[in-house]
Design goal:
By secondary structure, the protein is mainly alpha-helical. The protein contains 7 helices and no strands. It has helices spanning 2-9, 12-50, 56-71, 78-94, 100-120, 122-143, 148-166. The relative contact order is 0.08.
Length: 167
């Protein structure tokens, strides 16, 4: 019996079945991640509806959308998500944030937006938007030097530019 199991495990059919299982789990995992993102977005939208003048839910929605695009730039919904993030950023601008932390968060989102555009199509959008991305992230850090998200995005952006120019 042991010989038959080990013989099957070594067979090409077994290898194909394992590869098929891995592919299926990957696809299911990706769908679950996207569904999870959509569920998170829906929850934030409900929170925004309850607190229409609050910046927090809007900022979180934009970060969620742009973060998804930056990690999944070839996703079929990436363009739609970037457009939705831009719409949310405009809502935040319309509220005219007064606190320095809120203005810094807005500048961070604007830098993140341009970064997402670049990640979606580096060849075309890199030369077009890199200055806006850097300027907005720098502005965010000038307004609030303790803005950890702006620091992280700025460092990653500059790191990505360095890697891109060395290739």
């Amino acid at each position: 019996m042991t010989f038959q199991i080990s013989k099957f495990m070594a067979s090409p059919l077994c290898h194909r079945l394992m590869v098929l299982a891995i592919v299926c789990f990957t696809v299911v995992g990706a769908q679950a991640q996207q569904l999870s993102m959509k569920e998170q977005l829906a929850a934030l939208q409900r929170l925004e509806a309850m607190q229409p003048d609050s910046l927090g839910p809007k900022i979180q929605q934009a970060v969620l959308l742009l973060g998804f695009v930056c990690t999944n730039p070839q996703d079929s919904n990436a363009k739609q998500y970037v457009d939705e993030a831009q719409r949310i950023i405009r809502k935040i601008e319309a509220l005219k944030p007064q606190k320095a932390a809120d203005r810094s968060d807005l500048a961070t989102l604007q830098g993140f937006y341009y970064t997402a555009l670049i990640v979606m199509n580096p060849q075309q959008n890199g030369p077009r938007y890199y200055r806006q991305a850097l300027d907005n992230l720098d502005k965010a850090l000038k307004i609030n030097p303790g803005n950890m998200m702006a620091k992280m995005l700025s460092e990653r952006f500059k790191e990505g530019m360095t890697k891109g120019s060395s290739n």
